[in-house]
């Protein structure tokens, strides 16, 4: 009798520990998603400002002088659409110019018949092969690739954000150089950089 009570007590403790562990994991995941969504929301207006200070910005517009922003995703189109809607609610124009957004996959971005965007925003944390393809495309087209995701600037994205006690633009100097993209010197002085 005593032994069976002890086994039940141990089983109950084990079950409580498992449930507690699951609750902690779910809360951590929810917090991580919340942090990532916050980074995205902070990044959208920074993205608009960064592309406006690309010294070659005016040469990257459509024939009708419209800014075209490509939001590139891998498998979560709805998240990319949400980002474009959020950008529209925050930013009405870019450098006093109208803008349009495209929600595209990596393959659609690189389609020979597609419009070359003014700049590219990574709407998902892409696998290495896909981000490398987007970066190679952007270098060839002399475009900025902006990513809100931690580690992407180090992986080769042209720009992102660095959050410390304040938010700063974050640039990959090697990618900018290889893309022949020049950012206004004043912004570069106030930004974090990665070589």
Features:
7 strands; alpha/beta; 7 helices; 3-stranded mixed beta sheet; 4-stranded parallel beta sheet
Fraction of residues in helices?
A: 40-55%
The counted number of beta strands is 7
Strand content: 15-25%
Mean pLDDT: 86
Could you outline the blueprint of secondary structure elements for this entry?
Layout: H1 2-52, E1 67-73, H2 77-90, E2 99-105, H3 106-109, E3 119-122, H4 128-141, E4 144-146, H5 152-155, E5 159-163, E6 167-172, H6 173-179, H7 185-189, E7 192-194
Parallel strand pairs: 1-2, 1-3, 3-4, 6-7
Antiparallel strand pairs: 5-6
Helix pairs in contact: 1-2, 4-6
Textual characterization of the structure:
The structure is a single chain. By secondary structure, the protein is of the alpha/beta class. Helix content is 51%, strand content 18%. It has helices at 2-52, 77-90, 106-109, 128-141, 152-155, 173-179, 185-189, and strands spanning 67-73, 99-105, 119-122, 144-146, 159-163, 167-172, 192-194. The strands form 2 sheets. A 4-stranded parallel beta sheet has the order 2-1-3-4, with helices on both faces. Strand 3, helix 4 and strand 4 (144-146) form a beta-alpha-beta unit. The longest helix is centred in the N-terminal third of the chain and has 51 residues, at 2-52. The radius of gyration is 22 Å and the shape is globular. The model is unreliable at 17-31 (pLDDT under 50).
């Amino acid at each position: 009798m005593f032994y069976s009570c002890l086994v039940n007590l141990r089983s109950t403790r084990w079950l409580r520990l498992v449930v507690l562990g699951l609750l902690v994991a779910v809360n951590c995941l929810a917090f991580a998603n919340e942090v990532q969504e916050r980074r995205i929301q902070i990044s959208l207006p920074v993205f608009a400002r960064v592309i406006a200070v690309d010294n070659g910005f005016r040469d990257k517009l459509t024939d009708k002088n419209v800014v075209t922003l490509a939001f590139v995703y891998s498998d979560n189109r709805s998240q990319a659409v949400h980002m474009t809607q959020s950008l529209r609610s925050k930013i009405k124009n870019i450098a006093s110019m109208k803008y349009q957004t495209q929600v595209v996959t990596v393959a659609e971005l690189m389609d020979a018949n597609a419009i070359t965007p003014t700049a590219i925003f990574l709407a998902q944390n892409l696998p290495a092969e896909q981000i490398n393809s987007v970066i190679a495309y952007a270098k060839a087209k002399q475009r900025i690739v902006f990513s809100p995701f931690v580690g992407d600037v180090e992986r080769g994205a042209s720009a992102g954000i660095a959050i410390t006690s304040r938010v700063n633009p974050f640039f990959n100097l090697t990618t900018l150089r290889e893309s022949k993209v020049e950012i206004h010197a004043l912004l570069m002085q106030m930004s974090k950089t990665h070589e």
